[in-house]
Amino acid sequence: MTTAVPTRPAPAFVTGLRHHGGRTALIGGSEQLTYTALADRVDDAAAALAGTRRLVLVPATATVAGMVGYLGALAAGHVVLLAPAGDPDTAAALRRSWDPDVVLGADATVLEARDASRHDLHPDLALLMATSGSTGSPRLVRLSRASLEANAAAIADSLDIEATDRAVTTLPWHYCYGLSVVHSNLLSGAAVLLTDASVTDPGFWELVGEHRATSLHGVPHTFALLDRVGFDAMELPHLRYVTQAGGRLEPAQVRRWAGLGAAQGWRFVVMYGQTEATARMASLPPELAAEAPEAIGVPIPGGALRVDDPDADGVGELVYAGPNVMLGYAHTASDLALGRTVTELRTGDLGRQRPDGLFQVTGRRSRFTKPFGVRVDLDATETLLAGEGLMAAVTGDDIRLVVAVERPDDGSDPTAAVLALLTTRLHLPEAVVAAVVVDALPRRANGKLDHPAVAALVPSAPPRDSWVARLRARATRRAAPPTVREIFARTFPGQVLDDEASFVDLGGDSLTYVGVSADLERALGQLPERWDTVPLGELASRAPAPRSRWARVEAVVVLRALAIVLVVGEHDHLWNWLGGAHLLLAMAGWTFSRFVLAGPDRDEGAGLPRRILRSTALIAVPSSLWILLRSMMTSSVQHQDALLLGSVFHPLVQGYWFVDSLVQILVGAALLFAVPAVRRFERRHRFGLPALVLAASLALWLVPSYDRTVPSDLYSTHLVLWLFALGWMLQRAVTPAQRWATAAATLVLVPAFFGAEYERAAIVAGGLLVLLCVARIAVPRPLVAPITAIAGASLGIYLTHFALLPLADVGVPPAVLVLLGLALGIVVWRLGTAAVRQVVRALARRGLVTAAPSTAPC
């Protein structure tokens, strides 16, 4: 089928690349391209796609290759259909619905191609995008080259983008807001830093600092995450402006962020837009944010807003007109031949124009909601469910979605199917979808659905399955690997699972981390690097990888399992290899840095000290109870040992020295971080603070221990504090200089501390160097389950294995004692954690808690 020749080859941000010459254009991973080099790469990509104009599916990967593929398709005059990266289900749905002629891979290679198009493509059509709340239905937004170019120019004008600017991709660029950042900066000759890292990932801020990023862009949830990572205390001298869109930010937050920007020398710009307007329609001048934080501002250059059919208060539907308005929607492939079918955009938002001329959104006219910043078309959602054979009525607000679904004729409960479909297709956390099964949908007298009545159904509990059905469902779940969302829901009972939140954001700890990583590896086959900082939605959308005979397990998990096995084996006299407990203490410092200090409440005043104390309690309470129980059964343990104050007010009990020292160190850390100046210093000097603590702890080597009868004391808290600090410092070592410094400190301090105990020094130093240099260790897949079980229950094993030592006196072999000690610890730990989860779930159902237990750094 022949198609019309495009009216112009490509938008100006593509055709003008070479005009910017040797300026930096793209930075991604290890690649850095000038505009001249980018233009050459784009020309090559366009040449590879030469021929008849076609529909090209492009995955929006945050890489140089992915961006080159996109720009090359535009340069060749093709129509681009953008697909989210790492979401094979959505990509497959797009391919089924739209039958693209060419499919590009993540590295921009051509995976599939036809010589000619099967579609009639209108000459003005350049790009097809789903709206932010796409339900997977066929409707797409048709955008012209003129719209793309006009919006890029208007945004560049509004934000005063300069050729010296460097924008970082804090948002995926298959999303219109994220794509507009790319377009406007390329049009201006500025650089774009490509990354898919979360703002909670330290690597993101290393990229920002190394390449001197001048702009950040986010939706409301992004700013909540920025608060968590201590953005207000960061030193970002090159930052010029920060933009916010993608949903309403509370006026108090707008005022606060605008004030922060004014104090630190950057502009805070609130923007308003929709995919149907290519991206942006209005922006609020930064100087007006403090006095008009409720406003969306004024139209972007070239655009116009009006209030249609205003009421007595001047409130009506906001209507936008401008060159960036879409050509129209595409419902089927035949619509790709259409030209312009709309000349202005009825936004569906209610608003007014204030006396000062600024526009303000006051509500929504049509049935749209925006929970977690994702626009959801309620009518389209009902259509989506109907397409799956589920008769449903959908309502809700910006907090939650309420779905009433009719019970099928076979009497089955469709709740699980509804939740699975909506969380997958709408990219919403399951906790914000309330599904209620009814015998008949509520309707008004005229036969139309009664949505207010649907909303009123929420307080009613859905019908409970019979115990037989529940057992059958449980057996079915056990037969198949759990889904990513099921794993997170089980790990964080009572919490709202935001798709943008990662394991660390949700308060994940080092002990649950072990079990979750094993479950995720089982579900996905292979985990991405630093998966604990990857947003839940992105993890859930990953396609399972083929399973091999070998699994790559995180080094910290393998080392923790090995260390506790060394401890148990030495105590049971199976071997005489010392050092396992000291290695565990150093790894406790490593996990303290990775999980406790990276937690979601680290910047809420006293939030971080409270978090550290909660973490301490998770270790101290079970340890004290167990030691108290042991003191009633054996004379080798005294009642006062349960206070965990060994080496402070009474002699150290060497069997439990690790728990005593760790608890005392964590209490000291809570006191340290109770000082605001320390928290600010830590946010600015992530490596510097643990280095200072390490240096200070070395001076404590000169302080004698409490019990001077113990020769060569290697266990007192003040003498082993340096190991915790070294582990903390090791986790913060990210630059080559920091890693070399940490390695040197390890090789010098470990032998100096242990003296002639060469084997113990080798075990501790070797373990720390592996942790520093090796991210994952390949192990045979059958060993993954026992390794993760042992590592996850390391504290339980440490506490309980002493109870089995008397069995040696009745002839039980050491190897059997080791196996029994590991098994007992795993069983006790799992029973304890299961009991805690049940309590948390029960409290959550009664609304008494909203979060999972805090982090335990051991």
Would you kindly provide a written description of the structure presented here, covering whatever features stand out?
There is one protein chain. With 858 residues, the chain is an alpha/beta fold. It folds into three domains: 12-364, 3-Layer(aba) Sandwich (Rossmann fold); 370-479, GMP Synthetase, Chain A, domain 3; 555-840, no CATH class. It is 42% helix and 15% strand. It is built from 28 helices and 27 strands. Strands 6-5-3-4-7-8-18 form a seven-stranded mixed sheet, sandwiched between helices. A five-stranded mixed sheet has the order 11-12-13-14-15. Helix 9 (251-264) links the parallel strand 12 and strand 13 (267-273). Helix 22 runs antiparallel to helix 23 and helix 24 packs antiparallel against helix 25. The longest helix is centred in the C-terminal third of the chain and has 32 residues, at 814-845. The chain is globular and about 90 Å long.
The chain-level structural class is alpha/beta
Biggest sheet layout: 7 strands, mixed
Percentage of residues in DSSP E strands:
5-15%
CATH architectural category of the largest domain:
3-Layer(aba) Sandwich
CATH superfamily of the largest domain: ANL, N-terminal domain
What's the rounded overall pLDDT mean? Answer: 84
Write the layout of secondary structure elements.
Layout: H1 12-15, E1 24-28, E2 31-34, H2 35-48, E3 55-60, H3 64-75, E4 79-84, H4 88-98, E5 102-104, E6 110-113, E7 125-129, E8 140-144, H5 145-159, E9 166-168, H6 176-187, E10 191-194, H7 202-210, E11 215-218, H8 220-228, E12 241-244, H9 251-264, E13 267-273, E14 280-284, E15 298-299, E16 304-308, E17 316-321, E18 328-330, E19 345-353, E20 359-364, E21 368-369, E22 376-377, H10 378-387, E23 392-396, E24 401-406, H11 415-425, E25 433-438, H12 451-455, H13 467-479, H14 484-491, H15 510-524, H16 536-541, E26 550-554, H17 555-571, H18 580-596, H19 607-631, H20 657-673, H21 676-684, H22 688-699, H23 717-732, H24 736-754, H25 758-773, E27 776-780, H26 784-792, H27 794-800, H28 814-845
Helix pairs in contact: 2-3, 5-6, 14-15, 15-26, 17-18, 17-26, 18-23, 18-25, 19-20, 20-23, 22-23, 23-24, 24-25, 27-28
